[in-house]
Amino acid sequence: MATPWYGVNQASNEAHNTENKRSWGRPLLRNRCETLDIPFLIVDGAKDIRARRVVDSLEAALPDVRRVTLRRAGHLPWTEEPDGFRTAVADFL
Q: Could you tell me which residues belong to the region Disordered (predicted)?
């Protein structure tokens, strides 16, 4: 999504990665996810290069979750498979 007009926000990216490293894999984060009393929708792409275990663990931690994996999408399912993304969101809502 970084184009010549909208570069990567390095400060935001660094802060996000720092927080992720601090909290991922921690029992407190999982415990907090397990207490959330709201429905969640996870839409991910089967061709995403990120480790599947990350999304799998989030899905396992949320008590009320629906997950839709779009076969032809990667890291950006809303742009790579927009029709499937719209359908998943509309069905969830």
A: 1-21
For the entire predicted model, the pTM comes to 0.74
What end-to-end distance do the CA atoms of the chain give, in Å?
Answer: 26
Which of 3.40.50.150, 3.30.70.420, 3.40.50.1820, 1.10.10.10 would CATH assign to domain 10-92? 3.40.50.1820
* In the chain, domain spans: 10-92
Cα–Cα distance between 23 and 12 in angstroms, integer? 17
Alpha carbon 59 to its chain centroid, in Å, reads 10
